[in-house]
Write a structure and sequence with these properties.
In eubacteria ppGpp (guanosine 3'-diphosphate 5'-diphosphate) is a mediator of the stringent response that coordinates a variety of cellular activities in response to changes in nutritional abundance. Helix content is 45%, strand content 14%. With 811 residues, it is α+β, with helices and mostly antiparallel strands. The strands form five sheets. Strands 1, 2, 3, 4, 5, 6 and 7 form a seven-stranded mixed sheet that branches. Strands 13-17-15-16-14 form a five-stranded mixed sheet, with helices on one face.
């Protein structure tokens, strides 16, 4: 009769003897959780032995040696004897360190781990509870066992931090994959030995089996941690048996109602399913025999969490799932796999979209098999076809590479070392990872109420990986975030990885609540806090490699950027001062000049480069002011032309004489406002007066702004046009050290620039500073700019600038 695989994965296909008390303990523990399964029946006498915690150690050790294909396991025997004398019982005997060690070692034995791994598992809980010291372990069992225990303890401490970290719990609940990848990385970073990960997986598996004795709050927290972190690790190591159990046990606590519902459905359909599987198996067995293929056929039941995920993904009911009914066919060669696939498709109608060839294209964790689906006896049926070796690898993953049945493996081979490196690289390349387990664990218990919500499906498209070493550390921030850093990073490096400003303002650091120097190099699992000060700035000593403040390229780059920016910022401010001083002489607001207009001329990247150039000499101020004048069309005419008003026959006023257009018209009566005396080519605007047509103001004239705020309907647009126009009155103000002949020299310069002086007022103070106000006629801003620049260059001149008079009360 065909065998239906519905037993506990770790006990699948194994004959459990009554004297194998640890296995019976695992069976009973698991049976409480897998109440839908068909576990082997254990006698009352056996149960009594376990309930009283009188495990027959000798019988158990014999069974362990038998699994390892060894005559005896002396180290494991020694560990048992030591624990019996050292063990301190607790109120909850099920939490007893000895029983936990037996349970963990039992799991590892099914994964074909060596004796050192089994001993380490036995001692792990006892050392963690400080019943035994690391020194004792090293003295009694050697460095190999002691190192395995120590690295597993490191992973355990990280696991505790993760389990109790509320911030990380939010990542679990919200399935923040980027954060979860950091957690995976942190756990893997403590070791290069895959046995450490397997010991921790065994510990978490045993903890899940015992979780029914915990509080509901702890059940939820541990189940979330296992579902999100440890089930994916088991998958990435290819250990399907552990993955299935961890997922199902976690699901039981995270969504108990849904779990029980699916388990009940499995039990209700069991008889019908067994009959169906028997019929189709007989048909396929006959076809194999007819074609001379020796194979083993078994029924396969999908696991509860996998069923739940498929129902949500496909929005299907339990009865609609095609792979609830499944066969697994094991043969001797790859060629026979494809031969059997042809026979299956010949017997029943193939469902094309449900075919996957993982032999030609293995999954990243090494899984190989053919998956197909057919319609047999009017029902969908999944068929998996693989060789016996492929099946062995699929069930045990990396553990299948340690074959103790041959008695040749006492240490993990190179494959296992490479596998842990490969696993680390997978985690470090999460952006390119789409493997099923990252998505499988997007589990939200609250979503079980809405079955139309789709859970991300299995995807096995991962990048082919090299076996490279990645030396990293993983530390916690004050807020519980996991920060990944290159090994050898300092706390100052950490600060720059958190945020550039945190690094720039770093004043001190604390690691695990104690102050450390900024050169301190934290270790994985430590909590780092940076104390900042607003006024703090980076120190150039931080860039000195020999002082050891920073060891990462990222922090060094951030520091250099800061210092370059500080120098540049100072130069930009100085350049603005130089330019604004030149513009202030003209009473031109800096906002009216757009330096981007001159970027191409000076062959620089941006406007700031022009300002920096004014400081370092790459841009000449005279060249810049000349370009501004040219750009604003302020160059004087080469040939002097008498500026007389041109009277148009239709003109009603003086507008054309000033070369101004008001609202697009050129025959409007205008006058220049005395409050600001706008000069040709300055931005201007008009205001319609009651009696005198349109008054023309500088665009930024305060009086104009007051007028339009009061009567906005009287505002009208106005612009200059042409290069020639009527001379205009402006006022300039000068300060100079008083001396004989000063006024004569200044009037000579003004005359040289073809400006007509209409009025001059002078005042000399007791401090020998002469203050002079000139009212002059100029033709435009270009002429005025050149005049002021020439005046300011004269000996003894302190200041030369244009003056806008205070606005009158009426317009």
């Amino acid at each position: 009769m065909v065998k239906i695989r519905e037993s506990l994965p770790l006990l699948d296909g194994l004959d459990i003897q009554h004297d194998d008390s640890a296995s019976m303990l695992a069976s009973i523990t698991a049976q409480r959780h897998f109440n839908h399964t068909d576990l082997p029946i254990i006698s009352d006498s056996a149960s009594k032995i376990i309930d009283e915690h009188t495990i027959d150690t000798d019988a158990w050790l014999k069974s362990m040696a038998k699994r390892a294909n060894q005559p005896a396991l002396p180290k494991l025997n020694k560990a048992c004897e030591l624990l019996k004398t050292q063990d301190l019982s607790t109120p909850s005997k099920r939490s007893n360190a000895f029983l936990t060690g037996v349970g963990m070692a039992d799991i590892l034995a099914y994964l074909y781990q060596d004796e050192d791994a089994l001993v380490s598992a036995m001692l792990y809980r006892t050392v963690r509870k400080d019943v035994l010291s690391e020194k004792q372990v090293r003295a009694e069992f050697g460095n190999e066992v002691a190192d395995l225990v120590q690295e597993t303890l490191k992973m355990g401490r990280l696991s505790d931090l993760i389990e109790n970290n509320k911030r990380l719990e939010d990542h679990f609940n919200n399935n923040q994959k980027g954060r979860l990848a950091g957690i995976y990385n942190m756990l893997i970073s403590v070791t290069n030995d895959v046995r450490v990960v397997l010991i921790k997986l065994a510990e978490r598996t045993f903890a899940m089996r015992e979780l029914s004795f915990a509080t509901p709050e702890r059940q939820q927290r541990v189940a979330r941690e296992v579902m999100t972190i440890y089930a994916p690790l088991a998958h990435r190591l290819g250990i399907a048996q552990l993955k299935w159990e961890l997922e199902d046990l976690s699901f039981r606590y995270l969504a108990p109602d849904r779990y029980k519902e699916i388990a009940k459905l499995l039990n209700e359909k069991r008889s019908e399913r067994e009959s169906y599987i028997q019929n189709v198996s007989d048909q396929l067995q006959q076809a194999l025999a007819k074609n001379g293929i020796q194979g083993e056929i078994s029924g396969r039941v999908k696991h509860i969490y996998s069923i739940y995920r498929k129902m949500k993904l496909k929005s299907l009911s339990f009865d609609q799932l095609y792979d609830i009914r499944a066969l697994r066919v094991l043969v001797n060669s790859t060629a026979e796999c494809y031969h059997v696939m042809g026979l299956v498709h010949g017997l029943w109608r193939h469902i094309p979209e449900q075919f996957d060839d993982y032999i030609t294209n293995p999954k990243p964790n090494g899984y190989r098999s053919l998956h197909t689906a057919v319609i047999a006896e009017n029902k969908s049926l999944e068929v998996q076809i693989r060789t016996f070796d492929m099946h062995y690898e699929a069930e045990l993953g990396v553990c299948s590479h340690v074959n103790y049945k041959e008695g040749t493996k006492n240490k993990p081979d190179d494959y296992l070392t490479k596998k842990i490196s490969s696993l680390r690289q997978i985690l470090l390349n999460q952006d390119h990872t789409k493997d099923s387990n990252t998505k499988d664990n997007n589990f939200n218990p609250s979503s079980t109420k809405n079955e139309t919500t789709k859970t991300p499906q299995h995807s096995d498209d991962e990048t082919n990986l090299d076996f490279s070493e990645f030396e990293r550390i993983y530390v916690f921030s004050k807020d519980g975030e996991i920060i990944e850093l290159p090994k050898g990073s300092t706390v100052l490096d950490f600060a720059y990885y958190v945020h550039t400003q945190v690094g720039n303002r770093a004043q001190a650091a604390r690691v695990n609540q104690r102050y450390v120097p900024l050169t301190y190099q934290p270790k994985t699992g430590e909590q780092v806090e940076i104390i900042t000060k607003q006024s703090r700035e980076p120190n150039r000593d931080w860039l000195v490699a020999s002082l050891g403040y920073i060891n990462t390229a990222r922090a060094r780059s951030k520091l250099r950027q800061w210092f370059n920016k500080q120098d540049r910022d100072k130069n930009i401010e100085t350049g603005k001062h130089i330019l604004n001083k030149a513009l202030s002489r003209l009473s031109v607001h800096p906002n009216s000049i757009d330096l981007h207009d001159y970027v191409k001329f000076f062959n620089v990247r941006n406007a700031d480069d022009i300002l920096v150039g004014l400081v370092n000499g790459n841009v000449d101020l005279a060249d810049l002011t000349t370009q501004i004048t040219h750009h604003l069309d302020l160059e004087p005419d080469v040939v002097e032309t008498e500026l007389v008003p041109s009277i148009h026959p239709k003109a009603t006023g003086k507008l054309d004489a000033y070369k101004i257009k008001v609202d697009g018209l050129d025959n409007i009566d205008i006058r220049l406002a005395g409050c600001c005396s706008p000069v040709q080519n300055e931005p201007i605007a008009g205001f319609i007066t009651h009696l005198h047509g349109v008054s023309i103001h500088h665009m930024n004239c305060p009086e104009y702004e007051r007028l339009i705020q009061k009567e906005p309907e009287r505002a009208i647009s106005a612009v200059w046009y042409g290069n020639k126009g009527k001379s205009q009155l402006v006022q300039i103000y000068l300060e100079a050290y008083d001396r004989r002949g000063l006024l004569r020299d200044l009037t000579f310069i003004i005359d040289q620039e073809n400006a007509n002086i209409r009025r001059v007022d002078t005042l000399s103070d007791v401090d020998d500073i002469a203050r002079l106000n000139f009212t002059i006629e100029v033709t435009g801003l270009g002429q005025l700019s050149k005049l002021l620049a020439k005046l300011e260059q004269q000996h003894g001149i302190i200041l030369a600038r244009r003056v806008i008079t205070n606005p009158p009360k009426n317009t």
